Fold this protein.
Amino acid sequence: MAALANTFLTSAAKGNREQLSDVVSRITPEDTPILTEIGSDSVMGSHPEWETIDLAAPAANVQAEGDEYSFNASTPAVRVGNYTQIMRKTGIVSGTQDAVDNAGRAEQLKYQKLMRGLELKKDVEFSIVSNVASVGGTSRVSGGLPSWATTNVSRGATGANGGYSSGTGLTVAATDGTQRAFTQALLDTTMGLGFNSGANFKIASVSPYVKSVFVTFMSNSNVATFRYAVDSGKNNTVVSNADYYEGPFGRIKVMPNRVQAVSAGVARNAFLLDSDMLSWLWLRKISSDPDVAKTGDAEKFVLIGEGCLKVKNEKGIGVVADLFGLTAST
């Protein structure tokens, strides 16, 4: 029933005190699963390099009694590297806004710095999963995972590897192929390639949609079903999730990565990673520039960091590429 005529309603009032929750809800979570798993180290230059070497393949080793020694040629290590990428976030807050009683936060300047710092961390994750080649010079770019992988890779039709070029000292972006659905067979094939090349995959980073497809593997006839004891009189839960996959070539944790949901370009790849073979190298850890000049009745800030991805050996990473990563058709 409507209010009586001439009832003074809150919608018409002008002096009601504003009621805002003091709890700030962050719509975009700050989780960065790959960066968290691989950890970080420090570096002293903008073009860090390192060496990789492979063991010889197993072979028959039978020697004659009393045989004279012969000596094999030594295989030199391969020298590879990446370029540190500068990332920054900026902001400006008026003196008045920083002084007033802010609902949900203490000082607006500190709050804005916190939010921009979380965004920068997610930008690092985005750099890791992006199919971008490394670039030197002044506007340097850190080559992402897809630009390194050449050994343990499953691609759609017309897709092609990129890889590190010893001639240029740069990585090359992979060529996208025809998209296809994520399947248990694709996962097994890529894990098999990694097993044969010596990788010990520990995690799989996938888009949220691909994680939902992975969960359907439970319905396959050759996958063991979940069984739970039901306690009488207690609440029970319908379970439709799986976090680990144990297949013919090992056990791997499948993690949904929200950063891989921001675009089809980063959602199309499922990364199988040996976290011991990766790290993020910081030339400059994320920090606030203390020398930003004050030019008015406002506080400016600049958060800046610089680093790059280190792939200690590309055989420690695998990619199931060219997947429908956002929906069943995109």
In short: The chain has six helices and 14 strands.
